[in-house]
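Co-fold these.
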Amino acid sequence: MNEKPFTIYVIEDNEWYNKLLVHNLSLNPDYKVKGFHTAKEFFDTAAEMPDVVTLDYLLPDMNGADVLSKIKTMNPDTEVIVISEQENIETAVELIRNGAYDYLVKEKEIRERLLSTVNNIRKNASLKTRISVLEKEVQKKYDFQSTIIGNSPAILNIFQLIEKAISVNITVTVTGETGTGKEVIAKAIHYNSPRKNKPFVAVNVTAIPSELIESELFGYEKGAFTGAVARRIGKFEEANGGTIFLDEIGEMDINFQAKLLRVLQEKEIVRIGSNTPVKIDCRVIVATHRNLQAQIKSGHFREDLYYRLFGLLIELPPLRERGKDVLILSKFFMEQFCKENSLNPKSFSEDAQKKLLSYSFPGNVRELKSIIELAMVMSTGDVIQSDDINLASSGVLNDVMSEELTMKNYELAIVKAFLKKYDDNIKLVAEKLDIGQSTIYRMLKKSGS
Amino acid sequence: MKDENRSFSLDELNKVSNGDKKFVEEMVAIFIRTTDEGITEMESAIKKNDMKLIADMAHKIAPPCRHMGATALLNCLVSIENAIRNSDKSIDIAQLVEKAKKEKDIVISELKTEIIKKDVT
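Predicted complex below.
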Protein backbone atom coordinates (compact mmCIF):
# COMPACT_ATOMS: atom_id res chain seq x y z
CA MET A 1 0.00 0.00 0.00
CA ASN A 2 1.43 3.38 -0.92
CA GLU A 3 0.79 5.16 2.37
CA LYS A 4 1.75 8.79 2.88
CA PRO A 5 4.70 8.95 5.34
CA PHE A 6 3.93 10.24 8.81
CA THR A 7 5.84 13.51 9.03
CA ILE A 8 7.19 15.03 12.23
CA TYR A 9 8.99 18.38 12.37
CA VAL A 10 11.11 19.26 15.39
CA ILE A 11 11.45 22.97 16.23
CA GLU A 12 14.17 23.27 18.86
CA ASP A 13 16.88 25.94 19.03
CA ASN A 14 19.25 23.85 21.12
CA GLU A 15 21.36 21.99 18.57
CA TRP A 16 22.07 19.09 20.92
CA TYR A 17 18.45 18.64 21.96
CA ASN A 18 17.27 19.06 18.38
CA LYS A 19 19.52 16.23 17.25
CA LEU A 20 18.45 14.04 20.17
CA LEU A 21 14.74 14.45 19.37
CA VAL A 22 15.25 13.94 15.63
CA HIS A 23 17.34 10.83 16.30
CA ASN A 24 14.84 9.32 18.75
CA LEU A 25 11.90 9.88 16.44
CA SER A 26 13.81 8.70 13.34
CA LEU A 27 14.36 5.29 14.94
CA ASN A 28 10.84 4.49 13.73
CA PRO A 29 11.24 3.92 9.97
CA ASP A 30 7.62 4.98 9.38
CA TYR A 31 8.36 8.51 10.55
CA LYS A 32 9.83 11.16 8.28
CA VAL A 33 11.52 13.56 10.70
CA LYS A 34 13.11 16.95 10.07
CA GLY A 35 14.67 19.44 12.48
CA PHE A 36 14.37 23.26 12.53
CA HIS A 37 16.23 25.62 14.86
CA THR A 38 14.00 28.71 14.71
CA ALA A 39 10.34 29.45 14.07
CA LYS A 40 11.34 31.53 11.05
CA GLU A 41 13.30 28.65 9.53
CA PHE A 42 10.30 26.39 10.07
CA PHE A 43 7.71 28.73 8.54
CA ASP A 44 10.02 29.72 5.67
CA THR A 45 11.02 26.25 4.59
CA ALA A 46 8.23 23.89 5.63
CA ALA A 47 6.49 23.53 2.28
CA GLU A 48 3.51 21.85 3.81
CA MET A 49 2.38 21.31 7.35
CA PRO A 50 3.46 17.98 8.85
CA ASP A 51 1.36 15.57 10.88
CA VAL A 52 3.14 16.50 14.11
CA VAL A 53 5.31 19.38 15.33
CA THR A 54 7.36 19.14 18.50
CA LEU A 55 7.76 22.72 19.61
CA ASP A 56 10.28 24.13 22.06
CA TYR A 57 8.31 26.63 24.14
CA LEU A 58 11.14 29.17 24.38
CA LEU A 59 12.45 29.89 20.91
CA PRO A 60 14.81 32.81 20.27
CA ASP A 61 12.63 34.42 17.60
CA MET A 62 9.03 33.66 18.55
CA ASN A 63 6.97 32.75 21.58
CA GLY A 64 5.80 29.09 21.66
CA ALA A 65 2.16 30.11 22.09
CA ASP A 66 2.35 32.29 18.97
CA VAL A 67 3.99 29.50 16.94
CA LEU A 68 1.26 27.12 18.08
CA SER A 69 -1.45 29.57 17.09
CA LYS A 70 0.11 30.14 13.65
CA ILE A 71 0.48 26.40 12.98
CA LYS A 72 -3.12 25.75 14.01
CA THR A 73 -4.33 28.56 11.75
CA MET A 74 -2.36 27.16 8.82
CA ASN A 75 -3.47 23.58 9.41
CA PRO A 76 -5.78 22.63 12.30
CA ASP A 77 -4.99 18.95 11.71
CA THR A 78 -1.29 19.33 12.55
CA GLU A 79 -0.80 18.18 16.14
CA VAL A 80 1.62 20.20 18.24
CA ILE A 81 3.53 18.76 21.19
CA VAL A 82 5.00 21.57 23.24
CA ILE A 83 8.29 20.72 24.92
CA SER A 84 9.48 22.93 27.74
CA GLU A 85 12.43 22.97 30.08
CA GLN A 86 10.24 23.72 33.09
CA GLU A 87 6.95 22.34 34.22
CA ASN A 88 4.38 25.11 34.39
CA ILE A 89 0.83 23.89 34.88
CA GLU A 90 -0.82 27.20 33.98
CA THR A 91 1.13 27.47 30.74
CA ALA A 92 0.44 23.83 29.94
CA VAL A 93 -3.31 24.24 30.48
CA GLU A 94 -3.38 27.42 28.40
CA LEU A 95 -1.46 25.78 25.54
CA ILE A 96 -3.66 22.69 25.52
CA ARG A 97 -6.73 24.92 25.57
CA ASN A 98 -5.32 26.64 22.50
CA GLY A 99 -4.90 23.41 20.60
CA ALA A 100 -1.64 21.82 21.75
CA TYR A 101 -1.90 18.03 21.86
CA ASP A 102 0.42 17.62 24.85
CA TYR A 103 2.93 19.45 27.00
CA LEU A 104 6.15 17.59 27.81
CA VAL A 105 8.96 18.62 30.10
CA LYS A 106 12.58 18.10 29.12
CA GLU A 107 13.20 15.46 31.74
CA LYS A 108 15.11 12.21 31.46
CA GLU A 109 12.05 10.16 30.58
CA ILE A 110 11.09 12.47 27.70
CA ARG A 111 12.07 9.89 25.08
CA GLU A 112 9.46 7.36 26.25
CA ARG A 113 6.79 10.01 26.76
CA LEU A 114 7.43 11.60 23.38
CA LEU A 115 7.36 8.29 21.49
CA SER A 116 4.18 7.27 23.28
CA THR A 117 2.50 10.61 22.54
CA VAL A 118 3.48 10.51 18.86
CA ASN A 119 2.25 6.93 18.66
CA ASN A 120 -1.12 8.00 20.07
CA ILE A 121 -1.35 10.87 17.59
CA ARG A 122 -0.57 8.49 14.77
CA LYS A 123 -3.29 6.08 15.89
CA ASN A 124 -5.77 8.96 16.14
CA ALA A 125 -4.70 10.28 12.72
CA SER A 126 -5.21 6.84 11.26
CA LEU A 127 -8.68 6.66 12.82
CA LYS A 128 -9.51 10.16 11.58
CA THR A 129 -8.45 9.20 8.05
CA ARG A 130 -10.52 6.02 8.24
CA ILE A 131 -13.54 7.93 9.52
CA SER A 132 -13.12 10.52 6.77
CA VAL A 133 -12.92 7.79 4.11
CA LEU A 134 -15.98 6.06 5.54
CA GLU A 135 -17.90 9.33 5.70
CA LYS A 136 -17.12 9.95 2.05
CA GLU A 137 -18.17 6.40 1.20
CA VAL A 138 -21.42 6.81 3.10
CA GLN A 139 -22.10 10.14 1.40
CA LYS A 140 -21.36 8.55 -1.97
CA LYS A 141 -23.61 5.65 -1.06
CA TYR A 142 -26.46 8.03 -0.38
CA ASP A 143 -25.90 10.33 -3.33
CA PHE A 144 -29.55 9.72 -4.05
CA GLN A 145 -29.53 10.50 -7.76
CA SER A 146 -27.15 7.62 -8.34
CA THR A 147 -28.50 5.22 -5.74
CA ILE A 148 -32.25 5.68 -5.90
CA ILE A 149 -32.69 3.98 -9.21
CA GLY A 150 -35.31 4.72 -11.80
CA ASN A 151 -36.60 7.33 -14.19
CA SER A 152 -40.34 6.82 -14.01
CA PRO A 153 -42.40 9.98 -13.43
CA ALA A 154 -43.27 8.66 -9.97
CA ILE A 155 -39.63 8.37 -8.89
CA LEU A 156 -38.61 11.66 -10.56
CA ASN A 157 -41.24 13.32 -8.40
CA ILE A 158 -39.63 11.71 -5.34
CA PHE A 159 -36.25 13.19 -6.37
CA GLN A 160 -37.81 16.65 -6.36
CA LEU A 161 -39.26 16.12 -2.90
CA ILE A 162 -35.92 14.88 -1.57
CA GLU A 163 -34.24 18.02 -2.94
CA LYS A 164 -36.77 20.12 -1.04
CA ALA A 165 -36.29 18.08 2.16
CA ILE A 166 -32.50 18.49 1.96
CA SER A 167 -32.58 22.24 1.71
CA VAL A 168 -34.79 22.90 4.74
CA ASN A 169 -34.91 21.51 8.25
CA ILE A 170 -38.48 20.26 8.04
CA THR A 171 -39.92 17.09 9.59
CA VAL A 172 -40.41 14.52 6.86
CA THR A 173 -42.95 11.74 6.77
CA VAL A 174 -42.18 8.91 4.39
CA THR A 175 -45.00 6.57 3.56
CA GLY A 176 -45.07 3.57 1.32
CA GLU A 177 -45.63 -0.15 1.22
CA THR A 178 -43.12 -2.46 2.77
CA GLY A 179 -39.94 -2.75 0.71
CA THR A 180 -40.34 0.55 -1.14
CA GLY A 181 -37.17 1.97 0.45
CA LYS A 182 -38.38 4.31 3.18
CA GLU A 183 -35.12 4.12 5.13
CA VAL A 184 -33.09 4.66 1.93
CA ILE A 185 -35.00 7.90 1.41
CA ALA A 186 -34.42 8.96 5.03
CA LYS A 187 -30.68 8.30 4.69
CA ALA A 188 -30.55 10.08 1.35
CA ILE A 189 -32.07 13.17 2.97
CA HIS A 190 -29.72 13.03 5.96
CA TYR A 191 -26.48 12.35 4.07
CA ASN A 192 -27.15 15.12 1.59
CA SER A 193 -28.23 17.68 4.18
CA PRO A 194 -26.08 20.07 6.25
CA ARG A 195 -26.40 17.53 9.09
CA LYS A 196 -24.52 14.86 7.10
CA ASN A 197 -21.46 14.85 9.39
CA LYS A 198 -23.59 14.20 12.46
CA PRO A 199 -25.24 10.89 13.38
CA PHE A 200 -28.11 9.25 11.53
CA VAL A 201 -29.94 7.15 14.09
CA ALA A 202 -32.60 4.75 12.86
CA VAL A 203 -35.15 3.34 15.29
CA ASN A 204 -37.64 0.68 14.25
CA VAL A 205 -40.52 1.30 16.60
CA THR A 206 -41.95 -2.19 16.05
CA ALA A 207 -38.69 -3.77 17.17
CA ILE A 208 -38.87 -2.20 20.65
CA PRO A 209 -41.34 -3.50 23.24
CA SER A 210 -43.69 -0.72 24.35
CA GLU A 211 -42.41 -0.87 27.94
CA LEU A 212 -38.86 -0.17 26.74
CA ILE A 213 -39.52 2.52 24.15
CA GLU A 214 -39.12 5.43 26.59
CA SER A 215 -35.74 4.29 27.93
CA GLU A 216 -34.57 3.48 24.41
CA LEU A 217 -35.51 6.88 23.00
CA PHE A 218 -34.88 9.15 25.99
CA GLY A 219 -32.26 7.21 27.96
CA TYR A 220 -32.06 6.74 31.70
CA GLU A 221 -30.05 7.64 34.76
CA LYS A 222 -28.14 5.18 36.90
CA GLY A 223 -30.54 3.56 39.39
CA ALA A 224 -33.65 4.71 37.52
CA PHE A 225 -34.92 1.13 37.60
CA THR A 226 -33.65 -2.35 38.40
CA GLY A 227 -30.82 -3.08 36.00
CA ALA A 228 -29.99 0.56 35.28
CA VAL A 229 -26.42 0.14 36.50
CA ALA A 230 -25.10 3.17 34.62
CA ARG A 231 -26.43 6.24 32.85
CA ARG A 232 -27.36 5.58 29.24
CA ILE A 233 -28.25 8.20 26.69
CA GLY A 234 -31.22 7.56 24.46
CA LYS A 235 -31.56 7.61 20.69
CA PHE A 236 -32.63 11.28 20.65
CA GLU A 237 -29.44 12.36 22.41
CA GLU A 238 -27.41 9.99 20.23
CA ALA A 239 -28.82 11.74 17.17
CA ASN A 240 -28.10 15.22 18.54
CA GLY A 241 -27.07 17.49 15.69
CA GLY A 242 -28.09 14.84 13.17
CA THR A 243 -31.23 12.99 12.21
CA ILE A 244 -33.44 10.51 14.03
CA PHE A 245 -35.45 8.19 11.81
CA LEU A 246 -38.51 6.69 13.49
CA ASP A 247 -39.58 3.80 11.30
CA GLU A 248 -43.10 2.35 11.61
CA ILE A 249 -44.28 5.31 13.71
CA GLY A 250 -47.86 4.12 13.19
CA GLU A 251 -47.14 1.19 15.50
CA MET A 252 -46.09 3.40 18.42
CA ASP A 253 -47.96 2.83 21.68
CA ILE A 254 -50.69 5.46 22.03
CA ASN A 255 -49.64 6.26 25.62
CA PHE A 256 -46.06 7.00 24.57
CA GLN A 257 -47.20 9.20 21.70
CA ALA A 258 -48.06 11.99 24.17
CA LYS A 259 -44.47 11.94 25.50
CA LEU A 260 -43.05 12.01 21.99
CA LEU A 261 -45.31 14.94 21.14
CA ARG A 262 -43.93 16.87 24.12
CA VAL A 263 -40.35 16.16 23.03
CA LEU A 264 -41.06 17.40 19.52
CA GLN A 265 -42.72 20.55 20.85
CA GLU A 266 -40.19 21.42 23.56
CA LYS A 267 -37.11 20.10 21.73
CA GLU A 268 -35.88 18.55 24.94
CA ILE A 269 -35.96 15.14 26.57
CA VAL A 270 -35.87 14.03 30.17
CA ARG A 271 -34.01 10.81 30.89
CA ILE A 272 -35.89 8.27 33.02
CA GLY A 273 -34.90 8.86 36.65
CA SER A 274 -33.97 12.48 36.05
CA ASN A 275 -35.77 15.78 36.43
CA THR A 276 -33.37 17.72 34.29
CA PRO A 277 -34.39 18.36 30.69
CA VAL A 278 -31.70 17.90 28.04
CA LYS A 279 -31.91 20.12 24.96
CA ILE A 280 -31.84 18.23 21.70
CA ASP A 281 -31.37 19.40 18.16
CA CYS A 282 -32.16 16.69 15.68
CA ARG A 283 -34.17 16.45 12.56
CA VAL A 284 -37.02 13.98 12.72
CA ILE A 285 -37.94 11.76 9.81
CA VAL A 286 -40.74 9.27 10.36
CA ALA A 287 -41.99 6.46 8.19
CA THR A 288 -45.00 4.24 8.13
CA HIS A 289 -46.69 1.79 5.82
CA ARG A 290 -50.01 2.59 7.46
CA ASN A 291 -52.53 5.27 6.65
CA LEU A 292 -52.10 7.52 9.68
CA GLN A 293 -55.41 9.29 9.14
CA ALA A 294 -57.16 5.96 9.29
CA GLN A 295 -55.15 5.22 12.43
CA ILE A 296 -56.41 8.48 13.94
CA LYS A 297 -60.00 7.54 13.14
CA SER A 298 -59.56 4.15 14.74
CA GLY A 299 -58.03 5.74 17.85
CA HIS A 300 -54.56 4.28 17.38
CA PHE A 301 -52.75 7.52 16.55
CA ARG A 302 -52.96 10.91 18.20
CA GLU A 303 -54.22 13.64 15.94
CA ASP A 304 -52.02 16.30 17.59
CA LEU A 305 -48.91 14.16 17.02
CA TYR A 306 -49.96 13.60 13.42
CA TYR A 307 -50.07 17.34 12.76
CA ARG A 308 -46.79 17.90 14.63
CA LEU A 309 -45.09 15.24 12.51
CA PHE A 310 -46.79 16.02 9.26
CA GLY A 311 -44.19 18.32 7.67
CA LEU A 312 -43.17 17.25 4.19
CA LEU A 313 -44.92 14.11 2.99
CA ILE A 314 -43.05 11.77 0.67
CA GLU A 315 -45.28 8.99 -0.59
CA LEU A 316 -43.18 6.27 -2.14
CA PRO A 317 -44.87 4.55 -5.05
CA PRO A 318 -45.11 0.78 -5.04
CA LEU A 319 -42.86 -0.85 -7.60
CA ARG A 320 -45.83 -2.01 -9.68
CA GLU A 321 -46.61 1.66 -10.37
CA ARG A 322 -43.10 2.48 -11.53
CA GLY A 323 -43.34 0.89 -14.99
CA LYS A 324 -40.00 0.16 -16.58
CA ASP A 325 -38.11 1.09 -13.42
CA VAL A 326 -38.44 -2.63 -12.72
CA LEU A 327 -36.02 -3.36 -15.56
CA ILE A 328 -33.64 -0.55 -14.60
CA LEU A 329 -33.62 -1.80 -11.01
CA SER A 330 -33.19 -5.41 -12.17
CA LYS A 331 -30.10 -4.45 -14.15
CA PHE A 332 -28.79 -2.46 -11.17
CA PHE A 333 -29.24 -5.37 -8.73
CA MET A 334 -27.76 -7.80 -11.24
CA GLU A 335 -24.66 -5.63 -11.65
CA GLN A 336 -24.38 -5.09 -7.89
CA PHE A 337 -24.59 -8.85 -7.32
CA CYS A 338 -21.94 -9.49 -9.99
CA LYS A 339 -19.63 -6.91 -8.41
CA GLU A 340 -20.03 -8.36 -4.93
CA ASN A 341 -19.43 -11.90 -6.16
CA SER A 342 -16.81 -11.23 -8.87
CA LEU A 343 -19.08 -12.50 -11.64
CA ASN A 344 -19.47 -11.38 -15.24
CA PRO A 345 -22.61 -9.33 -15.89
CA LYS A 346 -25.51 -11.03 -17.63
CA SER A 347 -28.41 -9.80 -19.70
CA PHE A 348 -32.13 -10.49 -19.42
CA SER A 349 -33.98 -12.38 -22.15
CA GLU A 350 -37.10 -10.77 -23.59
CA ASP A 351 -39.28 -13.34 -21.83
CA ALA A 352 -37.54 -12.72 -18.53
CA GLN A 353 -38.16 -8.99 -18.94
CA LYS A 354 -41.84 -9.58 -19.73
CA LYS A 355 -42.16 -11.81 -16.70
CA LEU A 356 -40.66 -9.15 -14.47
CA LEU A 357 -42.85 -6.42 -15.94
CA SER A 358 -46.02 -8.45 -15.52
CA TYR A 359 -45.44 -9.19 -11.84
CA SER A 360 -46.93 -7.00 -9.12
CA PHE A 361 -44.11 -7.20 -6.54
CA PRO A 362 -46.02 -7.13 -3.25
CA GLY A 363 -42.64 -6.96 -1.51
CA ASN A 364 -41.61 -4.09 -3.81
CA VAL A 365 -37.92 -3.24 -4.40
CA ARG A 366 -36.74 -5.53 -1.59
CA GLU A 367 -38.51 -8.45 -3.25
CA LEU A 368 -37.17 -7.58 -6.69
CA LYS A 369 -33.64 -7.59 -5.31
CA SER A 370 -34.11 -11.09 -3.87
CA ILE A 371 -35.65 -12.33 -7.11
CA ILE A 372 -32.76 -11.01 -9.21
CA GLU A 373 -30.13 -12.40 -6.86
CA LEU A 374 -31.80 -15.82 -6.99
CA ALA A 375 -32.05 -15.58 -10.80
CA MET A 376 -28.32 -14.87 -10.96
CA VAL A 377 -27.67 -18.01 -8.94
CA MET A 378 -30.06 -20.14 -11.02
CA SER A 379 -29.01 -19.00 -14.49
CA THR A 380 -26.37 -21.02 -16.25
CA GLY A 381 -25.55 -18.93 -19.34
CA ASP A 382 -24.83 -15.30 -20.09
CA VAL A 383 -28.54 -14.54 -20.34
CA ILE A 384 -31.08 -14.70 -17.53
CA GLN A 385 -34.06 -16.65 -18.87
CA SER A 386 -37.70 -16.49 -17.84
CA ASP A 387 -37.33 -19.80 -15.98
CA ASP A 388 -34.56 -18.33 -13.85
CA ILE A 389 -36.98 -15.72 -12.54
CA ASN A 390 -38.63 -17.41 -9.60
CA LEU A 391 -41.77 -15.66 -8.49
CA ALA A 392 -42.86 -18.45 -6.16
CA SER A 393 -42.68 -16.23 -3.16
CA SER A 394 -45.61 -14.23 -4.45
CA GLY A 395 -49.24 -14.91 -3.80
CA VAL A 396 -51.06 -16.48 -6.73
CA LEU A 397 -53.57 -13.68 -6.88
CA ASN A 398 -50.90 -11.12 -7.59
CA ASP A 399 -50.12 -12.94 -10.84
CA VAL A 400 -53.79 -12.90 -11.74
CA MET A 401 -54.28 -9.25 -10.91
CA SER A 402 -51.25 -8.14 -12.88
CA GLU A 403 -52.99 -9.09 -16.13
CA GLU A 404 -55.78 -7.09 -17.75
CA LEU A 405 -58.73 -9.44 -18.26
CA THR A 406 -62.49 -9.36 -18.54
CA MET A 407 -64.48 -9.92 -15.36
CA LYS A 408 -65.38 -13.47 -16.43
CA ASN A 409 -61.81 -14.31 -17.23
CA TYR A 410 -60.67 -12.80 -13.90
CA GLU A 411 -63.13 -15.13 -12.13
CA LEU A 412 -61.80 -18.10 -14.06
CA ALA A 413 -58.18 -17.07 -13.41
CA ILE A 414 -58.89 -16.76 -9.68
CA VAL A 415 -60.47 -20.21 -9.56
CA LYS A 416 -57.56 -21.71 -11.50
CA ALA A 417 -55.04 -19.98 -9.26
CA PHE A 418 -56.75 -21.35 -6.15
CA LEU A 419 -56.91 -24.84 -7.65
CA LYS A 420 -53.18 -24.65 -8.32
CA LYS A 421 -52.55 -23.43 -4.80
CA TYR A 422 -54.66 -26.18 -3.16
CA ASP A 423 -53.57 -29.08 -5.40
CA ASP A 424 -56.86 -29.22 -7.36
CA ASN A 425 -58.86 -29.82 -4.17
CA ILE A 426 -62.20 -28.52 -5.52
CA LYS A 427 -64.03 -28.92 -2.20
CA LEU A 428 -61.46 -26.81 -0.35
CA VAL A 429 -61.34 -24.16 -3.09
CA ALA A 430 -65.14 -23.93 -3.08
CA GLU A 431 -65.02 -23.33 0.67
CA LYS A 432 -62.27 -20.76 0.37
CA LEU A 433 -64.06 -18.80 -2.36
CA ASP A 434 -67.47 -19.33 -0.79
CA ILE A 435 -68.97 -20.73 -3.99
CA GLY A 436 -70.50 -24.05 -4.84
CA GLN A 437 -68.41 -26.92 -6.18
CA SER A 438 -70.74 -27.15 -9.15
CA THR A 439 -69.93 -23.55 -10.06
CA ILE A 440 -66.27 -24.48 -10.26
CA TYR A 441 -67.01 -27.51 -12.47
CA ARG A 442 -69.20 -25.36 -14.73
CA MET A 443 -66.55 -22.66 -15.12
CA LEU A 444 -63.87 -25.20 -15.94
CA LYS A 445 -66.12 -26.93 -18.42
CA LYS A 446 -66.96 -23.66 -20.17
CA SER A 447 -63.36 -22.71 -20.45
CA GLY A 448 -62.49 -26.08 -21.87
CA SER A 449 -60.10 -26.89 -19.04
CA MET B 1 25.92 2.94 35.25
CA LYS B 2 27.31 6.34 36.15
CA ASP B 3 30.80 6.31 37.55
CA GLU B 4 30.33 8.30 40.80
CA ASN B 5 33.74 9.94 40.33
CA ARG B 6 32.93 11.31 36.92
CA SER B 7 31.13 14.58 36.17
CA PHE B 8 29.02 13.08 33.35
CA SER B 9 27.42 9.87 32.13
CA LEU B 10 27.05 8.54 28.60
CA ASP B 11 24.59 5.84 29.68
CA GLU B 12 21.53 7.55 28.23
CA LEU B 13 23.22 8.46 24.96
CA ASN B 14 24.49 4.91 24.58
CA LYS B 15 20.97 3.63 25.28
CA VAL B 16 19.27 5.74 22.62
CA SER B 17 22.10 5.35 20.11
CA ASN B 18 21.16 1.74 19.32
CA GLY B 19 24.86 0.99 19.02
CA ASP B 20 25.48 3.92 16.69
CA LYS B 21 28.92 5.08 17.94
CA LYS B 22 29.05 7.88 15.40
CA PHE B 23 25.87 9.34 16.81
CA VAL B 24 27.29 9.27 20.35
CA GLU B 25 30.49 10.97 19.18
CA GLU B 26 28.56 13.64 17.33
CA MET B 27 26.35 14.31 20.33
CA VAL B 28 29.37 14.59 22.63
CA ALA B 29 31.06 16.97 20.17
CA ILE B 30 27.92 19.13 19.93
CA PHE B 31 27.58 19.13 23.72
CA ILE B 32 31.16 20.28 24.20
CA ARG B 33 30.86 23.03 21.60
CA THR B 34 27.43 24.40 22.50
CA THR B 35 27.96 24.26 26.27
CA ASP B 36 31.28 26.03 25.89
CA GLU B 37 29.71 28.68 23.63
CA GLY B 38 26.78 29.09 26.02
CA ILE B 39 28.91 29.64 29.10
CA THR B 40 31.14 32.08 27.18
CA GLU B 41 28.05 34.01 26.15
CA MET B 42 26.86 34.08 29.76
CA GLU B 43 30.21 35.45 30.84
CA SER B 44 30.04 38.29 28.33
CA ALA B 45 26.43 38.97 29.35
CA ILE B 46 27.60 39.34 32.96
CA LYS B 47 29.88 42.16 31.79
CA LYS B 48 26.91 43.83 30.08
CA ASN B 49 24.64 43.05 33.08
CA ASP B 50 22.18 41.45 30.64
CA MET B 51 20.37 39.20 33.10
CA LYS B 52 17.71 38.08 30.63
CA LEU B 53 20.29 36.80 28.21
CA ILE B 54 22.04 34.92 31.02
CA ALA B 55 18.76 33.28 32.08
CA ASP B 56 17.88 32.41 28.48
CA MET B 57 21.30 30.91 27.89
CA ALA B 58 21.17 28.89 31.13
CA HIS B 59 17.73 27.70 30.08
CA LYS B 60 19.03 26.70 26.66
CA ILE B 61 22.06 24.68 27.70
CA ALA B 62 20.59 23.02 30.79
CA PRO B 63 18.57 20.18 29.15
CA PRO B 64 21.57 18.50 27.45
CA CYS B 65 23.39 18.56 30.82
CA ARG B 66 20.48 16.58 32.32
CA HIS B 67 20.69 13.89 29.66
CA MET B 68 24.50 13.82 29.82
CA GLY B 69 24.39 13.28 33.59
CA ALA B 70 26.33 16.52 34.19
CA THR B 71 24.43 17.08 37.43
CA ALA B 72 26.70 19.64 39.11
CA LEU B 73 26.72 21.82 36.00
CA LEU B 74 22.97 21.39 35.57
CA ASN B 75 22.32 22.49 39.17
CA CYS B 76 24.35 25.65 38.61
CA LEU B 77 22.44 26.50 35.45
CA VAL B 78 19.03 25.87 37.02
CA SER B 79 19.97 28.03 40.03
CA ILE B 80 21.08 30.85 37.71
CA GLU B 81 17.88 30.80 35.70
CA ASN B 82 15.60 30.56 38.75
CA ALA B 83 17.41 33.35 40.58
CA ILE B 84 17.10 35.70 37.60
CA ARG B 85 13.48 34.81 36.72
CA ASN B 86 12.47 35.17 40.39
CA SER B 87 14.53 38.39 40.77
CA ASP B 88 16.29 36.83 43.75
CA LYS B 89 18.77 39.52 44.75
CA SER B 90 20.34 37.38 47.49
CA ILE B 91 22.15 35.28 44.92
CA ASP B 92 25.34 36.47 43.27
CA ILE B 93 24.77 35.60 39.62
CA ALA B 94 28.33 36.39 38.56
CA GLN B 95 29.62 33.97 41.17
CA LEU B 96 27.22 31.28 39.99
CA VAL B 97 28.24 31.78 36.38
CA GLU B 98 31.87 31.45 37.44
CA LYS B 99 30.98 28.22 39.22
CA ALA B 100 29.14 26.97 36.12
CA LYS B 101 32.24 27.74 34.03
CA LYS B 102 34.39 25.65 36.35
CA GLU B 103 31.93 22.76 36.27
CA LYS B 104 31.73 23.02 32.47
CA ASP B 105 35.52 22.89 32.22
CA ILE B 106 35.60 19.74 34.35
CA VAL B 107 32.89 18.04 32.29
CA ILE B 108 34.47 18.96 28.96
CA SER B 109 37.91 17.92 30.11
CA GLU B 110 36.64 14.53 31.30
CA LEU B 111 34.59 14.04 28.16
CA LYS B 112 37.60 14.73 25.95
CA THR B 113 39.67 12.28 27.97
CA GLU B 114 36.90 9.68 27.63
CA ILE B 115 36.75 10.12 23.87
CA ILE B 116 40.52 9.87 23.47
CA LYS B 117 40.51 6.76 25.66
CA LYS B 118 37.81 5.19 23.47
CA ASP B 119 39.65 6.12 20.27
CA VAL B 120 42.82 4.44 21.61
CA THR B 121 40.98 1.31 22.66
